[in-house]
Design a protein that fits this description.
alpha/beta, two-stranded antiparallel sheet, 32% helix, binds flavin mononucleotide
């Protein structure tokens, strides 16, 4: 039977009530990585709104890996209880709580968007900034800090932080994990030939450039329960001549599948400032479709998916297993309810009893 936007999605031991997920979105609202009432209300209200999956924003595995000083983190055990409060609430609303584990690498230590008029401006030491690290010492842009090149021992330390963060994420009640290997952050900066000029076993050939991702995933997968989905967000193209390509992504997806990865979240870009990205309706969906069919792995499509019919079409035509929505979910936490009306399946999303009089 063909699937559609509101058919449940079962993967390993969990079932999403529909194919709609909230894409991870930084809220720049934490102090020392700790989730607070803002994160509870932000993520919680989107669970009330009917999405099947709620993925918490890029959450740093070490303090140095935060994009801004206000990013979420899961780099110490004290972070676990406030996350648990959020995952408990999400689950009670019938959604599955997910988390994106991240390290910003050379794009770390920047101001939150509304603290600086130009985004990506480095926070200096005197304003609470910190040293950033990467595969080499080329900065992402002239506004960013010059990264220090990681030694193999330091790479192993960061991988250990990903392992410990994975254990904490489980302890905090998350049932879906996403390794953030997109958008020019640490993992992406290793696999893209445009940001990795290393000459050791972490640079040069394709196999060497993907080593950081594969090794990290291997460590994390061991600690994450086999019966829960383990997923990876990739930037499927650098959108620049000589950069990472969709063909590379298909090859990497096949390797990730062998490591026990269950789904690829297909994003793109972020490693080169001002790359000519042809942004438009569903512009990244072809990445999802190709990876799903060529690497034979489940995928999520993301990027300018805004209408119920559009999302339903993506699922019905086998272009993705899930759709993730970012900005549209900021505009409307009740998007799943609205989409159910748009595709003439009004009963597909249960309205919370407290709100029934608003919807009937
Ligand atoms: C405010 C904001 C914060 C974001 N933060 C993250 C993030 O933490 N991790 C990530 O992988 N993508 C992040 N993104 C990208 C989104 O997850 C999504 O991939 C992108 O916005 C495209 O989807 P959309 O067109 O539905 O918004 C962010 C986007 C926005 C608008």
């Amino acid at each position: 039977m063909s699937q559609h936007l509101f058919s449940p999605f079962s993967m390993k031991g969990i079932t999403l009530r529909n194919r709609i997920g909230v894409s991870p979105m930084c809220q720049y609202s934490a102090e020392d990585g700790t989730p607070n009432d803002w994160h509870l209300v932000h993520l919680g209200s989107r669970a009330v709104g009917g999405a099947g999956l709620i993925i918490a924003e890029a959450t740093a595995v070490e303090a140095r890996g935060r994009i801004s000083p206000e990013d979420l983190g899961i780099y110490k055990d004290e972070h676990i209880p406030p996350f648990r409060r959020i995952t408990d609430f999400i689950r009670k609303q019938g959604a599955v709580p997910g988390i994106q584990l991240a390290h910003a690498g050379r794009k770390a230590s920047t101001y939150s968007p509304w603290k600086q008029r130009v985004s990506g401006v480095a926070v200096p030491d005197e304003d609470g900034g910190w040293e950033v690290v990467g595969p080499g010492n080329t900065p992402f842009s002239k506004n960013h800090r010059i990264p220090r090149e990681l030694s193999p021992e330091e790479i192993a330390d960061i991988q250990e932080s990903f392992r410990l963060a994975t254990l904490r994420a489980r302890e905090a009640g998350f049932e879906w994990i996403e390794f953030h290997a997109a958008h020019g952050y640490l993992a992406h900066s290793f696999y893209s030939p445009l940001s990795n000029q290393r000459t050791d076993r972490y640079g040069g050939s394709f196999d060497n450039r993907i080593r950081f991702v594969l090794e990290t995933v291997r460590l994390m997968r061991k600690e994450w329960p086999e019966e829960l989905p383990f997923t990876v967000r990739l930037s499927c193209s650098d959108w620049v001549e000589g950069g990472w390509t969709l063909e590379d992504s298909v090859d990497l997806a096949k390797r990730l599948k062998e490591e026990g990865v269950d789904l690829i979240d297909c994003s793109s870009g972020g490693n080169i400032p001002k790359a000519p990205i042809p942004v438009g309706a569903g512009y990244q969906v072809p990445f999802s479709e190709t990876i799903r069919h060529s690497a034979k792995i489940a995928t999520a499509a993301v990027g300018l998916i805004t209408h119920g019919m559009q999302a339903d079409d993506i699922i019905r035509n086998g272009r993705a297993d899930l759709v993730l929505l970012g900005r549209e979910m900021l505009r409307d936490p009740y998007w799943p309810l609205r989409a159910s009306q748009q595709v003439h399946q009004r009963d597909a999303v249960p309205v919370p009893p407290q709100y029934e009089r608003g919807w009937n």
